[in-house]
């Protein structure tokens, strides 16, 4: 009694804490009061226990420890007085959780209070159970909650429904207990009960295939409820901005989406209603936009009519014109999901999507960039690439790499002509050369090498670009390679496709020397320039000047550059009679595949990637073979050469930087990486012959179980030395009983050809359970990365 009389009242405690000048003074006040509270608890004062616990709960809200009040909560809950129960249940919700064993001690008290018949006490017990109830408590008290679902009191029924939702989330096996009452609760006119019932049915359908089958019979009833809400309104007090009860509409639409997914009859029943909601909802307020967005998601997830899907895409197109950035972001994200299944409908909103590229908001412009790249096809590639190149010139630095890579990939896939392809790649290298993929230079040199009619055009364009800017290293590498191969065409001035360009031999050599001496040039770039100079020694007249430059780099600190200079100098001194044959132009390189329309390309993409570029013939290779024995013996030994090894890693290619077509690759075996409850994940591999550092992995998910796998998301990660790009999946549902598999394409760049390691994360819903799996794939075939 002494302790309680000397302690402060709650109002006085709050006032003293607020009057504290420093944090130390606040701690002193709280420690002193906590000592009084502990003393009162030890004395077992029943009259003041709830007051002391109330002060302790305030201290807990301020962030100070209050665990010593847990047992006092149990005592107050067991008290017959309502004032004690109220504080006790509040303390239990704040101080107890399922990680502590003490919360199990209140199970009997809750069970007794649920059967008392006093509404206020039942409400407190239900709130505590729904906030802190563990799976064990839910199993023990499920029958009591089921009885309360049909109580005459609307107050108790509403709280019982919400508690049932918590129980299903904690213990999905209890779903059978709550199936019968839900059918009766759907006839309720009380807003809170009906909204809670819809939420409960949604949880049951997501976690139990039996419940999903059971509630599909009630689709007409749900359609009737939603039509009533839309046409006549549910209740005026629940209308927001002129939209009748948007929370109830959204919840019903989510439930209809689950019930109509992969079910023809249910989808047919709700088609007319969805069209009515989509056309009659007011979009001037956020509440109406929320309802419309849920309607769009429902239309896209069920087996809706084609006209209804077009209407849904048009609604998202209107969202793109909204002034609210959040709504525009939601629209872009949704359109990106739909672009694979409804490409033509999304294409109609291409101008609006392109306008979103200019958004100052970084998240919006990134989403608009992803969607713009997904919309590129053979019919609009020139207009879209022009827009994307304009965006590349002004986009933030963090978007330049994605934009440049996307433009190069689209140009490689849909280029109408080789000249356009060369111009597009050159503009990207000029604008954002430091942000392009590692294989951009190899792709451009292969493209130019295979277009004999464009050699003069290409070398002039690249020479002009190099003369203006030598800071973009990929551009410099491609230009020096092209000048080394076709420098004689640069001096002829015979190209009619470009403006007249008078270039002197001294200017070409001076430019290459400038690249060699520039502090911005990387070692690899200097290697390109040195090789270009050596090749020009057979095409130009400045032989002595080139010899002097090569001899200077024999003492270079860079080992690789020094090795090249020594080898080239030996070529000048000991094998000068072979130099013209060794340094002749590379043979023509034909790029695999052909330009066809988009539909044929999508259906034959794997077959095209499997085609190998032709291997150079023996006469072409034999002319360059003598260089292999350059430092090993006299020239007479070269008259009987060994067969040339055409592998990309041969010493000849390393020495001269010559692109070489690889032999036809052996097929890479498929790999099964995951299997659980009928869901299987397989990986298939393709390495395009034109870009040996690129690996295409097709992830195929199949389902042989009896239930659909929904909300399927596959995410991947690779080490930092790799570059990974995930394409949009074919869907997010893997149908049951071996239905149409879901596929997703992964593009992995491996410039160092290092051993590939892949980490996958799968998230999906199966048989009402939310599943997440994270695993590493370390047994990838050697052919996938070597």
From TrEMBL:
Keyword Transport: yes
Location of the GAE domain: 666-781
InterPro entries: Adaptor_Complx_Large_Subunit, AP1_complex_gsu, ARM-like, ARM-type_fold, Clathrin/coatomer_adapt-like_N, Clathrin_a/b/g-adaptin_app_Ig, Clathrin_app_Ig-like_sf, GAE_dom
Gene Ontology, cellular component aspect: AP-1 adaptor complex
Region of interest (Disordered), ranges: 593-617
Matches recorded under Pfam families: Adaptin_N, Alpha_adaptinC2
Protein family membership: Belongs to the adaptor complexes large subunit family.
Protein name: AP-1 complex subunit gamma
Taxonomic source organism: Delphinapterus leucas
């Amino acid at each position: 009694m002494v302790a309680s009389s000397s302690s402060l009242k709650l109002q006085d405690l709050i006032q003293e804490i607020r009057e504290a000048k420093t944090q130390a003074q606040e701690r002193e006040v709280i420690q002193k009061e906590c000592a009084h509270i502990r003393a009162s608890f030890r004395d077992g004062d029943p009259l003041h226990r709830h007051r002391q616990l109330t002060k302790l709960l305030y201290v807990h809200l301020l962030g100070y420890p209050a665990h010593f009040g847990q047992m006092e909560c149990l005592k107050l809950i067991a008290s017959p007085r309502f004032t004690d129960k109220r504080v006790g249940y509040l303390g239990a919700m704040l101080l107890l959780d399922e990680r502590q064993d003490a919360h199990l001690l209140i199970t009997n008290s809750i069970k007794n209070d649920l059967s008392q018949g006093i509404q206020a006490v039942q409400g407190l017990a239900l709130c505590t159970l729904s906030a802190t109830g563990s799976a064990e408590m839910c199993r023990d008290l499920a029958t009591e909650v089921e009885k309360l679902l049909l109580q005459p009191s609307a107050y108790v029924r509403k709280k019982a429904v919400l508690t049932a939702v918590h129980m299903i989330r904690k213990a999905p096996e209890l779903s059978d207990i709550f199936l019968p009452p839900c059918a009766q609760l759907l006839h309720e006119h009380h807003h809170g009960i009906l909204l809670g019932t819809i939420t409960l049915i949604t949880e049951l359908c997501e976690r139990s295939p039996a419940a999903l089958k059971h509630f599909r019979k009630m689709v007409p009833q749900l359609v009737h409820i939603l039509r009533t809400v839309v046409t006549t309104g549910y209740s005026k007090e629940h209308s927001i901005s002129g939209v009748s009860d948007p929370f109830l509409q959204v919840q019903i639409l989510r439930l209809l989406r689950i019930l109509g997914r992969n079910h023809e009859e249910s989808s047919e029943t709700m088609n007319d209603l969805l069209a009515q909601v989509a056309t009659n909802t007011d979009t001037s307020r956020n509440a109406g936009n929320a309802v419309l967005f849920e309607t769009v998601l429902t239309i896209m997830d069920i087996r809706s009519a084609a006209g209804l899907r077009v209407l849904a895409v048009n609604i998202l197109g209107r969202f793109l014109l909204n002034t609210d950035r959040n709504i525009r972001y939601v629209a872009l994200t949704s359109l990106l999901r739909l672009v694979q299944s409804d490409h033509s409908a999304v294409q109609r909103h291409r101008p609006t999507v392109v306008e979103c590229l200019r958004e100052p908001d970084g998240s919006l412009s990134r989403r608009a960039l992803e969607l713009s790249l997904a919309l590129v096809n053979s019919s609009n590639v020139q207009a879209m690439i022009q827009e994307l190149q304009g965006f590349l010139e002004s986009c933030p630095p963090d978007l330049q790499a994605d934009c440049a890579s996307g433009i190069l990939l689209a140009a490689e896939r849909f280029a109408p002509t080789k000249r356009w392809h060369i111009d597009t790649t050159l503009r990207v290298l000029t604008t954002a050369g430091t942000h392009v993929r590692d294989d951009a230079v190899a792709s451009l040199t292969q493209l130019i090498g295979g277009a004999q009619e464009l050699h003069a055009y290409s070398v002039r364009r690249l020479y002009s670009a190099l003369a203006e800017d030598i800071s973009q290293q990929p551009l410099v590498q491609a230009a020096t390679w092209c000048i080394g191969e076709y420098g004689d065409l640069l001096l002829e001035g015979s190209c009619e496709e470009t403006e007249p360009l008078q270039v002197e031999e001294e200017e070409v050599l001076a430019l290459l020397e400038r690249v060699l001496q520039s502090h911005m040039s990387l070692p690899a770039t200097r290697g390109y320039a040195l090789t270009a100079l050596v090749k020009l020694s057979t095409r130009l007249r400045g032989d002595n000047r080139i010899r002097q430059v090569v001899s200077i780099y024999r003492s270079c600190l860079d080992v690789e550059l020094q090795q090249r200079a020594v080898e080239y100098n030996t070529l000048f001194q000991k094998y000068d009679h072979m130099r013209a044959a060794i340094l002749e132009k590379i043979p023509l390189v034909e790029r695999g595949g052909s330009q066809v329309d988009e539909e044929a390309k999508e259906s034959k993409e794997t077959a095209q990637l499997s085609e190998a570029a032709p291997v150079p013939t023996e006469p072409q290779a034999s002319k360059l073979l003598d260089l292999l024995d350059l430092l090993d013996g006299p020239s007479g030994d070269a008259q009987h050469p060994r067969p040339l090894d055409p592998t990309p890693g041969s010493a000849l290619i390393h020495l001269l930087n010559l692109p070489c077509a690889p032999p036809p690759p052996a097929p890479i075996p498929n790999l099964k990486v995951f299997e659980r409850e009928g869901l299987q994940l397989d990986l298939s591999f393709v390495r395009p012959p034109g870009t040996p550092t690129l690996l295409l992995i097709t992830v195929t998910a199949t389902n042989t179980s009896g239930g659909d796998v929904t909300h399927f998301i596959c995410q991947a990660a690779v080490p930092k030395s790799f570059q990974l790009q995930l394409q949009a999946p074919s869907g997010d549902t893997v149908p049951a009983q071996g239905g149409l598999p879901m596929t997703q394409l992964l593009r992995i760049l491996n410039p160092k050809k290092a051993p590939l390691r892949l980490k996958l994360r799968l998230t999906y819903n199966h048989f009402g359970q939310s599943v997440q799996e994270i695993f590493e794939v370390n047994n990838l075939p050697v052919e996938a990365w070597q």
